[in-house]
Design a protein that fits this description.
CATH architecture: 3-Layer(aba) Sandwich
CATH class: Alpha Beta
Distance between the termini: 10 Å
Order of helices and strands: EHEHEHEHH
Helix content: 25-40%
Number of strands: 4
Structural class: alpha/beta
Largest sheet: 4 strands, parallel
Shape: globular
Strand order of the largest sheet: 2-1-3-4
Radius of gyration: 14 Å
CATH topology: Rossmann fold
Length: 137
């Protein structure tokens, strides 16, 4: 079984969504993980919009890459530019992919209207869904 890591800066939103989608689509055919270079906490709006799509990420938590020191990854996917630029070397990882997604909290921070914020998160959620769905594992 392949081990796939989604890596982002804070492991709070994009990489968490990607892990949720991967677990949904791959249905036990691969193990997906997510981590951050500077982990914080899972964004509550990310949890909400994923739940709207039928994916429960409420039990996921923000993790550092050191959490997975003992796991050999077949594929490492960076989902933000900072992670791609500073991504550590993963011994044994046969492939590394970078696909940058906009940062929903950063895009939404200037909007007072909660529904506008939700729209931004939903848009990025759907972009991540489409990306993960087309990955060949």
């Amino acid at each position: 079984m392949k081990n796939i890591l989604f890596l982002c800066n804070a492991n709070s939103c994009r990489s968490q969504m990607a892990e949720g989608w991967a677990n949904h689509f791959w249905n036990g055919n691969a193990r997906s993980y997510s981590a951050g270079l500077f982990p914080t906490q899972v964004d509550p709006i990310a949890i909400k919009v994923m739940a709207e799509a039928g994916i429960d990420i409420s039990s996921q938590y923000s993790k550092s890459i050191q959490t997975f020191d003992n796991i050999q990854f077949d594929l490492v996917i960076t989902v933000c530019d900072n992670a791609a630029e500073t991504c550590p070397f993963f011994p044994g990882a046969s492939k590394k992919i970078h696909h940058s997604f906009p940062d929903p909290p950063k895009l939404a921070e200037h909007f007072a209207d909660y529904n506008l914020k939700l729209g931004i998160y939903r848009s990025i959620r759907d972009q991540i869904r489409d990306f993960v769905k087309q990955l060949e594992i």
